[in-house]
Design a protein that fits this description.
It contains 13 helices and no strands. With 277 residues, it is mainly alpha-helical. The chain has two domains: 37 residues; 206 residues, MetI-like (MetI-like fold, Orthogonal Bundle), CATH 1.10.3720.10. Helix 3 packs parallel to helix 7. The C terminus is likely disordered.
């Protein structure tokens, strides 16, 4: 029995080495743009030299208009994320636990914002927002982000509820809790880690959304992505634009780290929320 195992050992070693090399190449390929932006932010140019000198000059020259656009975007993205999840979680619970007729049709209809190009969605929303005086306003930008985020929030929470055995709710109801009480005290705490991960992805999507907001925004309501694009078109790659791009990367890393530390690696790796038995 030992001889066949010995003959398979070199193949197994080669397979593991090839897998390790593949994973390293994939990680390097995915992290390369992020590392490049961070290095460029300390040099104020995309033509990164090596070894990279560290300088905060580009950060110091970021104009007030950039900071206004940055905090405008943070507020709109956070509020849109919260509203999208407040709508998506009860809707997903109703569709999954309520066994609604036509549920699959509704789930597919919600995916329309992901299927339709943001360019078309932006034009459609603009035709609605202009008569309502919502274009070039914080409310308009926020509502546009909510429209984009609802599909992501619903898909996440629907999958979470599908993976959650309904025995937990049945047990709570057998002890006297009604459906809403069981949802509030049993279901929500169990899906909370998954909802936090959904919030992370939705927030990051809202933070960098460009095409949709290009039509909704204006001088009085300018997200940072639009501000960066406009300045790069008018003035080229200016140092403070590269520095602001680096700050957006820091925000993404900070939110990811916050969720990862709070939940632990098993949830970030996509493990199951709960198991039967």
């Amino acid at each position: 029995m030992s001889a066949p195992r010995w003959r398979l050992a070199p193949g197994l070693i080669f397979g593991r080495a090839a897998l390790a090399i593949y994973l390293v190449i994939m990680v390097l390929w995915l992290t390369f743009p992020v590392v490049l932006v961070l290095l460029a932010s300390f040099q104020g140019t995309l033509e990164v030299s090596w070894p990279a000198p560290v300088s905060f000059d580009a950060y110091k020259t970021i104009p007030p208009s950039y900071w206004e656009a940055f905090w405008f975007t943070i507020r709109a993205a956070l509020l849109a994320t919260g509203i999208a999840l407040l709508v998506a979680i009860p809707a997903a619970w109703a569709m999954v636990r309520g066994r609604l007729a036509g549920r699959r049709v509704m789930s597919n209809l919600v995916l329309i914002p992901d299927v339709v190009p943001q360019l078309i969605l932006g034009i459609a929303l603009l035709t609605v927002f202009i008569p309502l005086r919502l274009s070039n306003s914080f409310a308009g930008v926020m509502l546009a982000l909510v429209a984009l985020s609802l599909s992501t929030g619903l898909r996440f929470t629907e999958a979470l509820l599908e993976g959650l055995p309904d025995e937990y709710e049945q047990a709570a109801q057998s002890l006297g809790a009604d459906k809403l009480t069981a949802f509030r005290l049993v279901v929500l705490p169990l899906i909370a880690p998954g909802v936090a991960i959904a919030a992370l992805f939705i927030f990051m999507q809202n933070l960098i959304t460009f095409e949709l907001l290009f039509f909704i925004s204006g001088p009085s309501a300018t997200p940072i992505a639009i501000r960066l694009f406009s300045d790069i078109i008018d003035r080229g790659i200016v140092p403070y634009a590269v520095a602001m791009a680096g700050i957006l990367v820091y925000v993404a890393i900070a939110f990811y780290t916050l969720v990862a530390v709070s939940l632990g690696p098993k949830y970030m790796a996509g493990s199951v929320m709960s198991r039967k038995g």
